[in-house]
Every structure is written in structure tokens, then in C-alpha cells.
């Protein structure tokens, strides 16, 4: 497997390029660690310069607003971000592991066993599970492909 990040919201981004990137991700990246995120205009970067009153203002409001650097209308931009975030966070199109077993250890962690849908090897993990049903997005320890581990 391989890993990468596809970043949305560059000033040259259009609805068409956004759709093209999502289509590429859906077709070629579901089994690998390719994540979706928004371009962040940090101070010192070219996309930051001239867009904010000051660094102080930016940092005081960084978590209060979405920064649209594109020419896409703000409401549409927010909708596209919401859709992209949902696709990223839910691992909707990632193949599910089989043979999933989760056993509570004495320290609040669970030992989780899961069989990879790609190579068929069993992997073992330790993680905290806040409640069931729950899923973990994990990588196979043998082939490093992404898999969705559904815990019931």
C-alpha cells in the first residue's frame, strides 16, 4: 500500500476539479492510506498573505470559520467540504475486515483481531473502544492496505 493526502481548496480549485479529485480517490485510493483534507492558509504561506487582517486575528478565529480560498461560492464550498469530510471520516468505501473479535482487557483497552479483506492475514491490535457498535479504520499489518474493522 501507499499513503498520500489529497488537499482541496487551493485558490485555483473549481467544482469541476473537486469532483475530478473525488472521482480519482474513489476509483484508485480506497485500499491505500490516501486521506482528504482542506488547504489551510497558515501564516507565512503564500495563500495566507493578504487574506487576513493579522496573524492574531487568524489564530483567534481559526476554529470559528471555514476559509474559502477558491472562487466557489461560500455555501457551495461548505457543502463540498461537508461531503468530503463525511467521506473521509466514515471510510464508506473501504473494504470491511472479516472474523472480527474484540476482547476487553483489564486496563480499559480491547484486543482486536481482524482478517484482512485484501491478503487474508489476521492482524491483532489494541485500542480503546468507546462503545458498540463502533468501527476502526486500520491498516493490515501484513499488506498495509486499509480496512474497516466493524465492532459489534
Automatic annotation (TrEMBL):
<dbReference type="InterPro" id="IPR058240">
    <property type="entry name" value="rSAM_sf"/>
</dbReference>
<protein>
    <recommendedName>
        <fullName>Radical SAM core domain-containing protein</fullName>
    </recommendedName>
</protein>
